[in-house]
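Quick one:
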Amino acid sequence: MSTREQALRREAIRRRLSGERRKEICHDLERSTRWFNKWWAVFQRDPYTEFCDRPRAPLHVVTTFPPEIDPLVVTLRHHLEASPYGLMGARAIQGKLRELKVHPLPSEATIQRILARQGLTHPVGTATATVYYPWLPLEALQAVQATDIISKHLRGGLEIQHFHTLDLVTHAAVLSQHLDKTSTTTCQHLVRAWARLGLPLIHQFDNEGAFCGGHTHPRVIGRVVRLCLWCGVEAFFTPLYDPKRNHQIETFHALWCQAFWSRQTFTSLPHVRRAVRGFSHWYHYHYRPPGLAGKTPAQMRSDLRGPRLTPDLRRTLPDFATARLPLTEGRFHLMRKVDGGGYVEFLNERWLVGRQWTGEYVRATVDTARQTLTLSHKASEAADWKLLKTRTFRLTESVHELLPQFKRNRARCHDYLPG
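Output:
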């Protein structure tokens, strides 16, 4: 740095201390007010400063990490994503690496770079909250349900998995409690829910491994999706890392925690199951959810008629506890936000949409009968769905016809979710 530049900085500070105005000083010295503010702040921190520039050499030596760090970071990311707490960023991953005594420990910035290389971050431009999201038209479809899992621990450490299914139109709910959250247990819960609430046209899930089939094998069609297809139900997966798109069931969780779980101390799984009966009765017959015009869920369902999973229909189901469910003709959907590279991720693969759609929501629809994948976009509530791409979606196993007992008029689904 030149001596003259140091002298200018000292002169600026000396004149300011003598009472001159900042603008006059900057005008005389031909410098910006931003320049003055910087060196005034330096002087405030250290009155004995020499007004030198900071050295530009890197402060830290770059550490070379072993090649197994990358897959370990990715594995931990997927593990944290499947956890019920939602903390899966670089700091949470670094904490897990510290618990595993990994050395040298990568910094948060290094972990973020690893995640970016694997397409597991949210690039700039994709996190805007102003982009239009095409919500499911509940009033038009009339038969939409959502299922989610919330994990809680009993005193002593036993973890209970609470399965909640909510009818998004009437707000009626079915609750069950289990010691695991496998796909088999999820299917058992759905069968119970459909017997009570009826068979929906659309069933909404988040991207929990038990719902989507796991995060390992590409183009996986999991057991839950297969059960939906068998029963003529269209599974609908909300966007990744976007819990507000599943806000109805999240709101129910909050009510359940406040009015039930936090008010009692439970000692065992049977204790929880007995207590849930009382909460369910109160919720359906006494609680009036916002948006139901003062009615209870039981009142909303009093005149409702629709197909249910009757005992006769349940006998048509394959034994999903011991055998793999076959694929059935039908559709399932996945909502995704396009990343900075123009890609969306689902079924454990990345699919190109186009950079011009960065930050926009698109819907992927898989049609198992036609073996096609369509990508569609809806620009606004008043706009129609626009078909962006159609791709072949080859299946390596035979696809069975939908049983006549489960056939229904799908016009409403195709009208509002074309593809």
